[in-house]
Amino acid sequence: MIIRLLLDEHYPPMLVTRLVERGIDAVGLLGDRPGLLGAPDAQVLRQAAAEGRVVVTEDVSTFPAAVRQVPDHVGVVYCRSSVFQRTPAGLVKLANALVSLATDPPGELGRQPVIWWLEADM
């Protein structure tokens, strides 16, 4: 199973393009879901759940509240900004890790409300 991704608004459309080019069903708030820009995290998570998408975010301080409000989601992947910096090299590293994750997801990610911390060596 390949999971479907929704990238939070801090990720550039170029990252979504790289993922799609590598066969991953990915959309981003920037470019693909502009109506969700600036929306509360719970609203983003509800939309992702409605689309059967796993949210990819680095909002580790605010997104847990959304997880409590939307218990029926299909997963949230946290990416540490210190590991996956939004630099050209950091975005390549993130794309590689997301492709690995999407094509070989752990456990029930993509089907159940799993919380996952993305690692650079995925």
Protein architecture, described:
There is one protein chain. The protein has 122 residues and is α/β, with parallel strands linked by helices. It has one domain. It contains five helices and five strands. The protein has a five-stranded parallel beta sheet. Strand 3 (53-57), helix 4 (63-69) and strand 4 form a beta-alpha-beta unit. Helix 3 (41-51) packs across helix 4 (63-69). The radius of gyration is 13 Å and the shape is globular. 32% of the residues are buried. The mean pLDDT is 94.
Low-confidence runs: none
The number of distinct structural domains comes to 1
Oligomer: single chain
β content, as a range?
A: 5-15%
Structural category is alpha/beta
Mean pLDDT over the full residue set: 94
**Secondary-structure element order, N to C:** EHEHHEHEHE
Q: How would you sum up the major sheet?
A: 5 strands, parallel
Q: What is the strand arrangement across the widest sheet?
A: 2-1-3-4-5
**How many distinct helices?**
5
Approximate shape:
globular
User: How far is the N terminus from the C terminus?
Assistant: 16 Å
Radius of gyration: 13 Å
Q: What is the number of strand segments?
A: 5
Helix content: 25-40%
Q: What does this entry show, briefly?
A:
The chain is of the alpha/beta class and about 120 residues long. The protein has helices at about 15-20, 30, 40-50, 65-70, 90-105, and strands at about 5, 25-30, 55, 75-80, 115.
